[in-house]
Design goal:
By secondary structure, the chain is mostly beta strands. The protein contains 2 helices and 12 strands; from the N terminus they run ααββββββββββββ. Bound molecules: FE2/S2 (inorganic) cluster. FE2/S2 (inorganic) cluster binds next to loops.
Length: 193
Amino acid sequence: MSQEVKNESGMTRKEAAKAVGHKCLVSRRNFLIGTGVTTTIMITMNAGTSEAKEVPAQITEYPRKFIAKLSELKEDEPFDFNYPDESDYSENMVVKMGVKAGGGVGPNQDVVAFNYACTHQGGSLDGSYKKDTKSLGACPLHLSTYDLTRHGILISGQAYQSLPQILLEVEGDDIYATGIFGLIYGRKDNLQG
Ligand code: FES
């Protein structure tokens, strides 16, 4: 059974995100919607039987966050942003690579986003984008390098996990982060940074 999840203002997640958008002036309530982590909904247990009853259930969602304008991204020039929060290891980059990539968005499926923390021991990959190979690295600690055209898989180095890829959606000219594929270094749960 599919249910449309609404917040206390009666808005769906998409409507709430649109209401928040990327404006600077938001109320505390809208900020909480925009970073919405946990929503309580009512679901029917044992539907269609004499034991059917409504019970509360909590779902945890990634926030939907505006990242950048598609039209303002310059090829091979990464743009930095934090996601899914402002805590440790939340630094990421979005880049238009000019070549089709796994998970890429935009008309040419060439816009991707990745976390900057090396999956080996958390070395920062900030500033290490290589336009020739469409990769991040080498990590300054132990030289791991990741392929951004193939979901951040390891090319070489000490790491053994792919770089977490930020899931993107495009709405008009706006790029939104909507989730993460992979576990951010240093976290047991991406949403408990
Ligand atoms: S921390 Fe990056 S390779 Fe070790």
